[in-house]
Write a structure and sequence with these properties.
With 87 residues, this protein is of the alpha+beta class. It has one helix spanning 58-72, and strands at residues 7-9, 14-18, 21-30, 38-43, 48-50. Strands 1, 2, 3, 4 and 5 form a five-stranded antiparallel sheet that branches.
């Protein structure tokens, strides 16, 4: 069985909450390299969203996440039946 490569996680990784929705932002690259950073978002129901293109810096990856939230809303990471409703 092949070993999983060790990963270096950005300090910008972590939970992000907006409008009562929390997701985990994970920005990482292979440990010990100066390689590009990958961006993933994991929902509370463990749905995974991955960006196809890598980022030169972890800041660029986080800025792309923030731009996605600003453009599409945090609820864009949820399935329709998971979107919180207000009454």
């Amino acid at each position: 069985m092949a070993k999983k490569p060790k990963l270096e996680h950005s300090e910008l990784s972590g939970e992000y909450t907006e409008d009562s929705v929390t997701v985990l932002v994970d920005i990482f690259r292979p440990a010990g390299t100066q390689g590009d950073w990958k961006l993933e978002v994991v929902t509370e129901k463990e749905d995974l969203f991955e960006w196809d293109e890598p980022f030169a810096t972890d800041r660029e990856a986080f800025d792309e996440f923030l731009a996605t939230v600003a453009r599409d809303g945090i609820a864009s990471f949820l399935e329709e039946d998971d979107v919180p409703t207000t009454h």
